[in-house]
Amino acid sequence: MRTHIFGKNPVTWFRESVQRFGWTQTLTIIWSVVVDTSFDRRFGTDTTRRIPVEKIKTTSSNIVHSMKYGASKAMPFRKLMAELKLPTDGVFVDLGSGKGRAVMLAAEYGFRKVIGLEFSGELCRTAEDNLRKFLRKRPTESHVEIIETDVTQYRLSDEETVFFLFDPFHAPILKQVMQNILESAERRPRDLWLIYHAPREQQVIEESGLFTDSKLHVVLGAEFMVYSIKVDEVPQTK
Ligand SMILES: C[S@@+](CC[C@H](N)C(=O)[O-])C[C@H]1O[C@@H](n2cnc3c(N)ncnc32)[C@H](O)[C@@H]1O
Question: Whose CA is nearest to atom 12 of ligand 1?
């Protein structure tokens, strides 16, 4: 078995991290990785094991644009949420929710409603099983739902406020997703956030022109681009 930290060989990662963040931050990052590896042991879940894209089972032809399955790291996610202080009366949607790690963490944060969209039935079943186990130990008031669907086929209900992506797919899918969010914002203007973890197709979001604010948050070595727009800034077309 090969060990990786943030997808890199540990020695390369360590050298680069000390150069970029310094010793103290690097040791904190290592601690966050240790906490992460104990997540499944702590909650009895199955989230950590990665799945290469060739092994993701789905009937969607958009698998050609999909990235591999991997779970969001718990400590960076929790710390980011504590920094952002997003309103908890909103609806959090994880676009490509896999085994449900980000869904669980968003429920723990306390959003009124948390939705995970995932096109692999097998991953949805694992996520549901994980959620049952997680929520027994971390009960929440949140309404939590996993929906088996390709994200491009999901009709937004116009109550969603926070969109989360952890490097789920390439530009063609993200373009369609952005179009759907834009149309939803026009139908019902509201405060919106989009959190893009490990962003690789940022230009698609920027080209959509929807968001008025963007900021890169580097939290315990993990990168999150956070985009937002306030209700009175949403373009009105009708
Ligand atoms: C990197 S994983 C992220 C898992 C989860 N969001 C988290 O943070 O723990 C990306 C997930 O996106 C899913 N995915 C990719 N393309 C998709 C699409 N078009 N519709 C729905 N899910 C998709 C993959 O099956 C995979 O489970």
Answer: 96
